[in-house]
Specification:
The chain is an alpha/beta fold and 354 residues long. 33% of the residues lie in helices and 19% in strands. The chain has 2 domains: 212 residues, Peroxisomal Thiolase, Chain A, domain 1; 127 residues, Peroxisomal Thiolase, Chain A, domain 1 (3-Layer(aba) Sandwich). The longest helix has 17 residues.
């Protein structure tokens, strides 16, 4: 059994405090959502703070908040998923190499440019000297880190594993994807994301962490039962059949799924996959979505896992994420389904822990 015994989420919404579950919602009129950043002086010494890039700050701040939430100083191991990694540092380093004609280039940007720099910084700050792994597999990055963490716990070699998804959006990569039509117009209202019948979505970012353990505690949020990924299904029928097969392996019927969390992002071309399932396989289930709050990014499924954990903890579905109003007496089983441009699809199934 895999239990979530702590969590923290830095996002474009005020989500860092777990005692205020989506009590305040921030509305944006833009196609790029950026995180509401905490006071980093709480997490770093002043000397170290000056040398840290933004994504490293986001990573450690969320990781430390998660450890504090779980009541731990250091995890036994660390697994991080990051689709983009430290892209900004890489860009700055390459620019300096070009400007200085490959001479006298400061090494700090190079050191902090690797995808693994986020997990490395967490290890340094927390004092964790054990297993440390980063997965950079685009929109499977967080799921891969989560699967690795679950396997480590099942082997019994580690008790507490810190697992997270971290990605930042920065100007140059945003402009690149914007030019090829990935994003909507500049004046896009994030809270009305699904009302735009147009191509493209809104860019997002986030830093979300979970402390996983083989045993529940008084701080336990939920239990992770299974994670599954698949790619390039032939059509909507194939997608539906794969999800049904996943549920069958879990000895679960759709009637037993209390809530479905969907990765709708406002892109009319690819949201049709979700809408097809909403009227067929998921038609009798309570349905919610989340990317209008955090935007689209490679590890956004970590936000969905945080959302589902909080829903189970509070036994409450915030109105801002609701897609329908089917009545629920209790929320025990939640299925998260996310896909990116019909290429990478993922399923995460979590349950109430007792």
């Amino acid at each position: 059994m895999i239990y979530i015994n702590g969590t923290a989420n830095i996002s474009p919404q005020p989500t860092l405090r777990n005692d205020k579950f989506l009590a305040d919602i921030k509305q944006y009129n833009t196609n790029m959502l950026q995180c509401i950043e905490p006071d980093y002086s709480v997490f770093f010494k002043a000397i170290a703070l000056r040398r840290m890039s933004r994504v490293l700050k986001l990573g450690w701040a969320a990781a430390k908040s998660c450890l504090d939430d779980a009541g731990l100083k250091a995890p036994d191991s660390i697994c991080v998923g990051s689709g983009k990694g430290c892209f900004k540092n890489t860009e700055m380093f390459m620019s300096l190499v070009n400007e200085n004609e490959e001479k006298f280039v400061p090494p700090s940007l190079f050191i902090q440019s690797a995808h693994g720099s986020i997990a490395a910084q967490i290890a340094i700050q927390s004092g964790c000297k054990n297993y440390n792994m980063t997965y950079a597999q685009r929109t499977f990055s967080f799921e891969s880190a989560l699967i690795d963490a679950m396997m480590l716990l099942q082997e019994g070699k580690h008790k507490n594993i810190l697992v997270g998804g971290v990605d930042e959006i920065e100007e140059s990569q945003f402009k690149t994807f914007d030019r090829i039509g990935h994003y909507k117009d500049t004046n896009t209202n994030n809270l009305k994301l699904l009302t735009y019948n147009s191509k493209g979505t809104i860019a997002g970012e986030g830093s979300t962490f979970f402390l996983l353990n083989n045993h529940p505690t008084e701080k336990t949020y939920a239990r992770i039962k299974s994670v599954y990924t698949f790619s390039n299904p032939r059509n909507n029928t194939t997608t539906k059949e794969i999800i049904e097969a996943f549920l069958e392996r879990e000895n679960l019927s759709m009637k037993e799924v209390d809530l479905v969390i969907l990765g709708l992002n406002g892109d009319a071309e690819f949201d049709s996959i979700y809408y097809n399932l909403m009227t067929t396989l998921f038609s009798e289930n309570r349905q919610t979505y989340y990317k209008h709050l955090c935007g689209e990014y490679h590890t956004s499924s970590a936000f969905a896992l945080w959302l589902s954990s909080m829903i189970i903890r509070h036994q409450k579905i915030p109105k801002i994420v609701d897609l329908n109003e089917k009545p629920l007496k209790e929320i025990n089983n939640i299925l998260i389904y996310n896909q990116y441009q019909n290429i990478n699809h993922s399923l995460i199934f979590i349950t109430k822990h007792n």
